[in-house]
Design goal:
single chain, 2 domains, two-stranded antiparallel ribbon, DUF6078
């Protein structure tokens, strides 16, 4: 199955673009890709200031790789393998790190987890004494628009 090509409609509305086509990483940076995908009738958009980037020198802190990453959805399967006490402790820790609403949206798979968020949840499991390897309910690949 052929992978869907990136389109302008895939770019989040609040995503900062880069207009530096001379950047050595412009071919693999989503900020530059977003700018190249923009339709000609688009009047305005938000960019990272070229002057600011030039003043930094070295590696660009705004670089955003166009390599897809693995997102995870849901962890109901993980909860099924825990004791009631472990579930309570785990839920309390996650809710204290975000919010009750976010916890339930992530738990059910309504909200996907970035690789960093997955790692954070797996670390909380370890802190709660769960040592067995755990897998989220499902996975998919997409761009990390940060």
């Amino acid at each position: 199955m052929k992978e869907k090509e990136l389109e302008f409609s895939d770019v989040p509305n609040n995503f900062l673009w880069c207009i530096d086509r001379q950047c050595p990483k412009s071919g693999t940076c989503l900020r530059q890709v977003a700018e190249r995908l923009a339709p000609t009738d688009l009047v305005q958009y938000s960019i990272v200031s070229p002057k600011h980037i030039a003043s930094l020198g070295g590696e660009c802190p705004y670089y955003c790789s166009n390599t897809k990453v693995q997102y995870a959805k849901g962890f109901l399967g993980i909860l099924e393998n825990l004791t009631a006490k472990q579930v309570r402790l785990f839920a309390q820790r996650l809710i204290s790190n975000s919010s009750r609403r976010t916890y339930y949206r992530v738990r059910s798979g309504e909200r996907a987890l970035s690789p960093a968020e997955q790692e954070s949840i797996l670390n909380v499991l370890k802190e709660c004494g769960i040592t067995a390897p755990m897998k989220f309910d499902s996975y998919y690949y997409d761009y990390l628009w940060t």
